[in-house]
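Write out the 3D structure for:
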Amino acid sequence: MSTYTEAPNHLYKIGEKVKVIQTSPPGHRRTPAYIRGSVGIIERICGSYPNPEELAYGFDGLPKRVLYRVSFKQVDVWPNYTGPSNDRIEMEIFEHWLSPLE
C-alpha cells in the first residue's frame, strides 16, 4: 500500500528560497544536523507522506507532511569547501523543517 498523496496545500513553490530551521530536538530526526540553518531553493514538491519522525516511534505519522527536494550550494553548507562554487547538494526535507527566507 502506498503512503504517498498529492500535496495541493503546499506552502512553498518551486524556485522559492527557504531556510532549514536551526533546532536540535531530542529523538529521531530525518533532517541532518549539518544542513540545519542552511538556505536552499525548492527544486521539487515530492508529495505528502506520513511523518517519519513519528513513524520511528510506532505512531501513525499523521497528519501527512509535504516533502520537498531542496538544492543547496556546497559552499553555503560546508564553510571550508574548496570544490567548484557551482557544486550543489540536493536533499529531501519535510515542510515542518523549512521556513520562508526573510
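The radius of gyration is 14 Å.
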